[in-house]
Amino acid sequence: MSSLLNFVKKILQNRFMIRSLVVRDIRARYMGSFLGIFWAFVHPLTQLLIFYFVFGLVLKARLGNQYADTNYAIWLMSGMLPWMLFSEVVGRSPGAVLEQANLITKTVFPSEILPLAHISAALVNHVILLFILLIFIFALGIGPLMNIIWLPLYLLGVILFALGLAWLLSAVNVFLRDIGQILGVFLNLWFFFTPIIYPASLVPKLFRPWLSLNPMVYPVEGYRMALLGRTEPDPEGLLILFIWGIAAFMLGGLVFKKLKPAFADVL
Question: What is this structure's pTM?
Answer without folding.
Answer: 0.88
